[in-house]
Request: fold
Amino acid sequence: MSEAETSSELSPKWDAAGLITGVVTDARTGELLMVAHLNAEALQLTQETGEAHFWSRSRGRLWKKGETSGHVLKVVELRIDCDQDALWMRVEPQGPACHTGARSCFCRRLTPGGELEMVGEIPQDGVV
Amino acid sequence: MSEAETSSELSPKWDAAGLITGVVTDARTGELLMVAHLNAEALQLTQETGEAHFWSRSRGRLWKKGETSGHVLKVVELRIDCDQDALWMRVEPQGPACHTGARSCFCRRLTPGGELEMVGEIPQDGVV
Reply:
């Protein structure tokens, strides 16, 4: 096994864009809420503030989840995977995690027929 | 909201390498087991066989989880996120998900001091 897999030292394996994958689950229910990316600064701010920060690839800037909506993600626990390129963020969400207003970004399941089917409701007001 | 976010049509948003992110959780316990990537063929085989397939970026080839170890991941449910670039794979694991032999790849937590601390045991034999 490599050093990254067994070490007690945090040494993220940043990709070519300087990012690792962040997987956010609800610490209470275990539901997968969202997947986003973190650069070194986002990780540092997440550790320092206890609130989830990310790097927005589409907007090209640092981003605190809930900075405008107030729907911040309070970090309960952070875990890193074996090769240190993915971060599990167990959180207490202070509102919907999805920008569509849904509790989770993962509210459509694939049916055996290959279609998508809603499993959670998107509120009419679509609050971010 | 965009078509991808509300549509009942599966239309994955492949990245430049033709991949989406796969987030694998234990359907029974909710534990995050691993994060890997899928290309179109891996997604198709996963849907057809009910067993998780991925694209290995390091080995540059299609890969069925457990093809050598027997530790396949039986798919209980597949969900796609709002912008269709991440797949939530809820599975029944037939053995350890991590190549280190650990049940999950995410068996180290970040302590407040910034170090890593084991939260699950890696077996001595390190069976893959």
